[in-house]
Amino acid sequence: MVLLEAMRASVPVVASRVGGLVEALGETPWLVPVGNDTAMVDAVQSMLENSDARRDWSSELRQRFERSGTIRASADQVLKIYRGEVA
Predict the structure, then answer these.
(1) Residue 58's CB: how many other CB atoms inside 10 A?
(2) Which of 9, 37, 42, 62 is the most exposed place for a label (fewest CB within 10 A)?
């Protein structure tokens, strides 16, 4: 649910490729391999140093949230992804 809150608030997200995040966010350089501390540090540093990328990713997240409909619908979709119910 933190992901949905970030998307709604247009907050850029850098995260590990766990659960349904790839399905929810798509292919993006802001998802890094699980356990790869170096990749996480590099992604966060890149996000902090690149205001254009940060702005674009924030905008993309907000648009994805708005396309998904209500918070409840978004939450239901995320739960389906985590449960493996979405192909």
Answers:
(1) 18
(2) 37
